[in-house]
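User: Can you write out an input/output pair for a complex, sequences first and structure second?

Assistant: Here is one pair. Inputs:
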Amino acid sequence: METIPYQHDEVTPVAASTITIKDVAALAGVSVATASRVLSGHPATSPDARASVAAAVTELDYRPNAQARALRSTRSDSIGLLVSDVRNPFFADLAHTVEQAALAAGYVTLLGNANERKEQQDRYLDTLISRRVDGIIVAPLGDGSGSIRQLITREIPTVFVDRTVDGLDIPSVTTDSEAGIRQAVQHLAAAGHTRIGYISGPQATSTGRDRFAAFTRAVADSGLSQDPELVYFGDYQAASGSAGVHALLQLNHPPTALLAADSLMAVGAIAILHKLGRRIGTDIALIAFDDIEWFALLNPALSVITHSVEDMGRIAVDMLLQVIDGAQPESVVLPSELIVRASSSSNPTSPASVTSQRTN
Amino acid sequence: METIPYQHDEVTPVAASTITIKDVAALAGVSVATASRVLSGHPATSPDARASVAAAVTELDYRPNAQARALRSTRSDSIGLLVSDVRNPFFADLAHTVEQAALAAGYVTLLGNANERKEQQDRYLDTLISRRVDGIIVAPLGDGSGSIRQLITREIPTVFVDRTVDGLDIPSVTTDSEAGIRQAVQHLAAAGHTRIGYISGPQATSTGRDRFAAFTRAVADSGLSQDPELVYFGDYQAASGSAGVHALLQLNHPPTALLAADSLMAVGAIAILHKLGRRIGTDIALIAFDDIEWFALLNPALSVITHSVEDMGRIAVDMLLQVIDGAQPESVVLPSELIVRASSSSNPTSPASVTSQRTN
DNA sequence: CGTTTCCATGGAAACGATTCCATACCAACA
DNA sequence: TGTTGGTATGGAATCGTTTCCATGGAAACG
């Protein structure tokens, strides 16, 4: 691809490998100290100094070195956001909200991706700590072991988001899965389902445990089958959703309805149900935790348990700023709610789900 | 939420507000210089020194200050990735691939989100430059004005990804849209469509321009209608996909097939087509640029023009590492290809698309 | 045994900002 | 006029590293 090399069609500084505040001060005819004061908006500066420094800055096209500034002032004006999986639309949305909210407050966001793996989480935590970010928002994974403990020992401002870690006293903003899951189970029970298959998240995450516990309670309270075989433990990734459906449909008494604990596993579930020729909303009911924009575009539209990712991100940033300021904000629990669409409209008398069909 | 305060159930360093290399050196009984050499793997160190420093490091749980290191060594071991929109699954996947590839090469990735807006792109570029990242991968927006010019004047290692900017001599990895779009148009022409509506990306992006040009050429070469009214200019966001469908269907001679220039606009298009009761693949054909995993799960499954985001991310990181090492890699152009699914199986004789239906 | 070579080491100077402290100036007051 | 007080300024220390340079000792060579 031929491109025209850069042309000097306007006055640009020569070479300018590295321009420091010293150069600015020299050109402005003031000391480094004064230049620094002007640049950081210190009140004790004369109009003269402000003018000449400003002129020098634009002429030299000076950009302060954030490293040096952070080293001396112990603030980096950056926060870290550690999510479990950027490809999960829920976390992509969260990243977007957090990043925008942080930017508005004058912080840049460093995004890390744990890939649902503890060692990657630890690696990124170490990196973020090493870079001396001013605070960290993390959707944690695992128990309190490993690098996560340093958040406490080093007193690094931290907020947990979506998930928590038992035994760590860190403010969090999470979702109350209980309400949404209860509504979903009751909704399915009302349609006559007695055997609901549950594709659970990993028990190494608090959401995995909480949602599973909520499901267990709801099933018991509604008098439905508590057959442990109806629960498949996945890992919040699409492939495990497929595997879960596969396993559950092979049971002697397969479920007539399915509840997937997150959106990616729901995607996996839908994919394999399509492949097996099971009609969602007709042969089998399906509800997913997490609302994704295009879930409503599926045919049939997917019933979901929704919770506000915008609120979660915004509040998390808000809380983190408070922690950075030395406050100790209360943890926040956001509501969840069932949205009924066509995918959960089937009832258990549909023909295809009565007999168990072996698939390979 | 009651949690048990952190317990000292193992030997942990006291308080440890900030542990520097000086503390490590003191405990190890060596000088700071030696400690530094051991830590950075300098060959000129004795086994004794290595052992005692290593012991001190673990005992104190020392983490080097990345700011200070970067300040002195002018390397930050970090790269910046500036994408147009994290919520776009294509860029989420790209972010994931880039981040993993960079991590493998020992770099952390700072993710910025331009939100398809030039001022946010400039803001993030300034920030990344300020933080002295070792290199930048950016899916650029707009012309060569604003902060983007600094990438050249400051000689910052940069690679363009997905998009380019005219007149800037920077290596890039992009997709050859031509082939895929030509296949799509020919496929639709073969089914008898003569009026294809095109929901274009913004002309401020190179992909927006390239794909539009490719569409125009393909339509001309296939002898189809070149009516300029059949083109709607969107902004790569979902809402503009809806707006585009709305506008195109209101024409006196509405199109019988639609081609959307990216996945988000396709999502918007699908949403409004559902709402209007137009059956995709029956009343109207639809093809989208960008393949997203769940596009195949839609009913009818969506025909797409696919290109490999994994290759793109991997190659971009690879090229950036080369540029950082002082090389000048050649730009890479990846292929695109049509995948035919059910959404483009309709032909123009379907009833609903013959008359123009006013909608509001 | 004397000289050269090599290697491990420590002192100290950077890196580029912020910030403490002392100073010089000017206005205001007694 | 002499003291006070406030304000703008510059010099210099500092943040936590890396790295240059000099040094000392041991090994290797003649």
